[in-house]
């Protein structure tokens, strides 16, 4: 759940969605439901997805979710997704 939450906070897809395996299953449905139930993420509306493009992730952070992510960063437990690293490098012109 923590990896999923960190990926959504960076507005990228979960790493496990790219390379699911027996040891790291891509169980995004259970993870999404658990984080939504705890009030950390919300599903975007169809209008939001259309406005951002269909290649966007269908989730957004809630205010509480953002606070939890800040705590993870301060505590050194934040897990940056590979897609977030690539996105950052592209913005900086390194890729």
Series of secondary-structure elements, N-terminal to C-terminal: HHEHEHH
In angstroms, what is the radius of gyration? 14 Å
Reported for the largest beta sheet, the result is: 2 strands, antiparallel
For the biggest β-sheet, the strand order reads 1-2
For the secondary structure, the number of strands is: 2
Q: What percentage of the residues does DSSP assign to strands (E)? A: 5-15%
Q: How many domain units?
A: 1
Quick rundown:
This protein is mainly α and about 100 residues long. It has helices at about 1-10, 30-35, 45-50, 65-75, 80-90; strands at about 40-45, 60.
Structure overview:
By secondary structure, the chain is mostly helical. It has one domain. It has five helices and two strands, in the order H-H-E-H-E-H-H. The protein has helices at residues 2-9, 28-37, 46-52, 63-74, 82-91; strands at 41-43, 59-61. It has a two-stranded antiparallel ribbon. The mean pLDDT is 85.
List the helices and strands and how they pair.
Blueprint: H1 2-9, H2 28-37, E1 41-43, H3 46-52, E2 59-61, H4 63-74, H5 82-91
Antiparallel strand pairs: 1-2
What keywords describe this structure?
49% helix, 95 residues, mainly alpha, two-stranded antiparallel sheet
